[in-house]
Structures are given as structure tokens and as C-alpha cells.
Specification:
Blueprint (H helix, E strand, L loop, with lengths): L10 H8 L4 H8 L4 E5 L6 H15 L4 E6 L4 H9 L3 E4 L16 E4 L11 H18 L4 E7 L6 E2 L16 H20 L3 E6 L2 E2 L5 H11 L3 E2 L4 E2 L2 E2 H10 L9 E5 L5 E2 H12 L5 E2 L5 E2 L5 H7 L6 H13 L19
Helix pairs in contact: 2-3, 2-8, 3-8, 5-6, 7-9, 7-11, 9-11
The chain binds NADP nicotinamide-adenine-dinucleotide phosphate.
The site of NADP nicotinamide-adenine-dinucleotide phosphate (NAP) has 24 residues, from strand 5.
Length: about 350
């Protein structure tokens, strides 16, 4: 793997670093044929995942077509993907007739999901997280599907317990988390009924420099605002590592569906991270509250056995984030609300 830079100074450099394909990914995409379809590709993760896949295809000398499907509320995202060799299809999957516009494929990555706004419009969240998975699972019954889920499907566990494992009961708090359990159950139902191979990816907190838990904490430290440590520990993963493992997780798809936890190996302590940002940015961190005995934590042993450990050290991502935020790098203004403990989003 190429050397990681000490700092990342521009969005172009960020994209370059985040979409450098490693040999394991190049080998995997080289084994695919036809098209790789990414549904819900217009959000926070999809564009870099699609470009990573496209660069891996080029490195493999393969002819697999990467097709990004989304509403593309932000038209610039669509243009940027097209400019970078990714075919796009703009469609609202809720629309009647949307399915007829979907490209054929043997390999599908499903990234659609709704979290924020659930308190205000729970119906929208349940529809997005249940109706769409049903339609997509039926439509792509002959494909294999890597479907994004979330670590929020577990209830909180004691800090120091090692985190929830895939066989734990899915009894979380709040409508978003329960609709995410439903998203999994619907993919699981169709996987059994139609024999469709499915991987359910229980992701916790991808880190970009433009959004993510570290950006949330660093932004508060820089502004001199208190960092709430009630949710005292969080699981995070560099988004490029998550994207790579999501694509490669297609190889793990099975019927009945298989679930994997995807995040960093060890949780980060929010208080320690805040103080580290304080040191790196020359501004002492202010702390509010006290650490809860429990947190939303998951154990990644299963994913590490199958796909290896995420290669990018979180210390490096903390250093990149401090530099990015201190330099006023562009952020998306999409806070993660990682501090929420009552399941309300
Ligand atoms: N990012 C994380 O840290 C994280 C952590 C845990 C789990 N996850 C899961 O991973 C998945 C991807 O994460 P993300 O952060 O990229 O999510 P995201 O920012 O919400 O992106 C999903 C995208 O799907 C598209 N979409 C939504 N409804 C659609 C519809 N009806 N028709 C077509 N496209 C639609 C939207 O893009 P446009 O409308 O702009 O096209 C949306 O931005 C999500 O399902 C999420 O649950 C993410």
C-alpha cells in the first residue's frame, strides 16, 4: 500500500487517498463480471465507494461497469461520478415504475437508508427502511446483495464487554434502530425465500474528513464548545477502509443471509479523543457530563477473520481530522449525533 500522507490538505488529495484501491480489492473486482450496481450512491459514502470500485476495475484491467443509482438530489455528485467513469442512473426508488429503470446486475450494493428526521417523520423512515428493501430484494433475487445495516441494531452493551456479536438479539431502542432491524429482516426473508445470497453489513461510524464522529468532536474543540462524554465510547472506521470491505463483503454473501459487524477494532474513548484534538489544535478541550456504563459497541472479530482488519490507523485519522478542521477544510454540516443514548434521531 502507498504511504499514507502526514496531513491531507485539499479535497482532491482526500479523494485520491480515499479511493486508492489495495491489491485485495483489485483482485476481487477482477473476479466480477457484468456490472456492479450501487443503490443509494448519492449520499455520504456512495460517491467514494463508487470511485474506489471504478479505480479498482481500471487497475484490474477489467471491463466491469460501475453503475451508481440514486435520486442525486445534489446534481454535482452525479456529474462528478460521470466525470470519473461511473455510469449513473437518477431515480427515486419510491416511485412507481422505478424498478423497471434499474440496470441488470449480478452484484448489488444497497446503501439506501433513512435515519435523521425519524422523530419528526417516523413513517418516512419505516417506508424507506422496509418497503425499499422488499422491492429491491425481489427485483434482484438472482443477484448477490451486500446490504448496509448499522451497529444501531444492537442494544447498548457494557463498556469493556468487547462489544455486541452478530448472534446477539436485535432489541435496540428507538424507531430508527428498529426500522433498521426490519431492513435486515426483510433482506433475510427474501434471501431465504428466493435463495438470494445476502451480506448484512452492520456498520458503525464511517470517518471522512468532511463528516463523522471525529469531525463532530474536533469542530467542538476548535470552537471551544463542550464535548459531551455521556456516550463515552464509539466505534469508528476510516471510510475508505469501510468502502473497500463493503465491496469485498459481496464474496461473503450467503442464503440464509449472513451478518457482519464492520467498524474499527477497538472503540475510541470520546474524552481521550477530545483531549488529543486539544493538543493537536492548541486549544484545551472542554468536557461535559460523565461516561455512561454502556455504549453502542460491536465486536468485529468475524469481519476481521473474513476480510482482515481495517488497515488505516485511527490515530492517523485523528491527526488528519485535526489538521483539516483547524485549517477550515470543507465539512458537510451533517452531524452524526453519536451522543444520542435514547434512540431518538
Ligand atoms: N455513514 C455512516 O457512518 C454509516 C454508519 C452506519 C450505517 N450506515 C449505513 O450505510 C448506508 C450508507 O451510508 P451513507 O452515510 O452514505 O447514507 P446516506 O448519506 O443517507 O446516503 C444514502 C443515499 O441514498 C439515497 N436515497 C435515499 N432514498 C432514496 C430513494 N428513495 N431513491 C434513490 N436513492 C435514495 C440518497 O441520495 P440522494 O437522494 O442524494 O441521491 C441518500 O443520500 C446507509 O444505509 C446507512 O444506514 C452509514
Amino acid at each position: 500500500m502507498d504511504e499514507l500522507p502526514h496531513t491531507i490538505d485539499s479535497e482532491d488529495e482526500l479523494i485520491e487517498v480515499m479511493t486508492r484501491p489495495r491489491p485485495a480489492l483489485v483482485a476481487f473486482v477482477g473476479s466480477l463480471s457484468g456490472a456492479l450496481v450501487i443503490l443509494g450512491a448519492g449520499g455520504k459514502m456512495g460517491p467514494t465507494l463508487a470511485l474506489l470500485a471504478a479505480r479498482a476495475v481500471r487497475a484490474a484491467g477489467s471491463h466491469v461497469e460501475i453503475i451508481a443509482v440514486s435520486r442525486f438530489a445534489d446534481k454535482r455528485t452525479r456529474g462528478w461520478l460521470e466525470d470519473n467513469g461511473v455510469r449513473t442512473v437518477a431515480v427515486d426508488l419510491m416511485d412507481p415504475g422505478a424498478l423497471s429503470r434499474l440496470p441488470e446486475s449480478e452484484n448489488v450494493i444497497y446503501m439506501v437508508g433513512r435515519k435523521f428526521g425519524t422523530n419528526r417523520d417516523p413513517e418516512e423512515t419505516w417506508a424507506a427502511n422496509t418497503l425499499l428493501p422488499a422491492r429491491i430484494a425481489e427485483h434482484y433475487a438472482q443477484a448477490r446483495i451486500a446490504a448496509l445495516s448499522t451497529g444501531n441494531v444492537y442494544p447498548m452493551v457494557p463498556v469493556g464487554s468487547g462489544g455486541a456479536v452478530e448472534t446477539d438479539r436485535l432489541t435496540p431502542l428507538g424507531e430508527y434502530a428498529n426500522s433498521s432491524v426490519a431492513r435486515e429482516r426483510i433482506f433475510g426473508f427474501f434471501s431465504r425465500r428466493n435463495g438470494t445470497p445476502v451480506t448484512l453489513i452492520r456498520l458503525s461510524y464511517a470517518l471522512d474528513l468532511r463528516y463523522g464522529v471525529l469531525v463532530d468532536i474536533a469542530t467542538k474543540v476548535r470552537a471551544g464548545q463542550p464535548v459531551d462524554v455521556g456516550m463515552g465510547h464509539v466505534n469508528c472506521i476510516w471510510q475508505a477502509d469501510a468502502n473497500e470491505m463493503i465491496i469485498r463483503s459481496l464474496a461473503l454473501a450467503s442464503s440464509p443471509a449472513t451478518a457482519i459487524n464492520l467498524t474499527g477494532v477497538r472503540p475510541l474513548a470520546v474524552r481521550e479523543v477530545a483531549h488529543r484534538f486539544g493538543e493537536l489544535m492548541g486549544r484545551p478541550a472542554r468536557i461535559a457530563g460523565a461516561e455512561g456504563m454502556t455504549a453502542l459497541l460491536s465486536n468485529t472479530e468475524k469481519a476481521r477473520r473474513a476480510l482482515g482488519a481495517p488497515p488505516t490507523p485511527l490515530d492517523t485519522v485523528i491527526r488528519w481530522t485535526a489538521h483539516w478542521v483547524a485549517a477550515g477544510g470543507r465539512v458537510l454540516d451533517k452531524p452524526t449525533h453519536y451522543e444520542v443514548r435514547d434512540g431518538g434521531f
